[in-house]
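Researcher: Please predict.
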Amino acid sequence: MGQIFQVGNQYIDEETLNKERQKILDILKEEKRTYSINIFILKETIAYLEDETKELANTKIFQ
């Protein structure tokens, strides 16, 4: 049995996390970009998603 991670008040198991990671890696491999570009894309995507998630959470709070 794999590890279970707590993220805030939610949980995700190791198997699901690994599957989601693999999906992301598969997409990056398909595009055949350099390591540097892939890292840049991942960092920018994380920042973007964090901002969007905060905005969505704030919108739900004020509705």
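Model: The longest strand covers residues 4-7.
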